[in-house]
Amino acid sequence: MYLFIFTLLVVLFQYVNTKNYVKANDSQFKSLKEKNIRMKDSLALLNNQLNDFIMFDFRYNQEAKDYFYDRGIDTDKLTILIENELYDLTDAPGEEHPLIPYAASGGKKMQFNSIKILNHKWVIADFSDGVFWGELLIKYEITPDNQLNFKVLDHLLYPTN
């Protein structure tokens, strides 16, 4: 008789414990499933945004790369060359930057903060002197004698508050 009662208690304990374990796992599974759905939605949104960003990026623009490939120019080296040439213009002699058409404040010199090559003709650049900042749209070309020329197409200076 005692054995029967003891066995019944053990079985009851196992049943309650297993029921609680299954309930906890089920709620955790549902929570993780919802989180997974949210993460998939976030990933899809980020993929769409990434596709928008790389649309105007020379590294992913095959037509722009083919333009230089047909001329026998290595686009990886060209990208580095363009960026270095633009950054090196900060060290050009004189008080003003040769491409940035705005005077710097307080004896400083305007310089590029970031440069993005859009395609086989245009570059967009962000510049600042620490107080004022703006952007430039620059056209670049490689001459037949492999010289790199820049021409500012448009520019803007953000207002300070």
Automatic annotation (TrEMBL):
<keyword id="KW-0378">Hydrolase</keyword>
<protein>
    <submittedName>
        <fullName>Hydrolase</fullName>
    </submittedName>
</protein>
<dbReference type="GO" id="GO:0016787">
    <property type="term" value="F:hydrolase activity"/>
</dbReference>
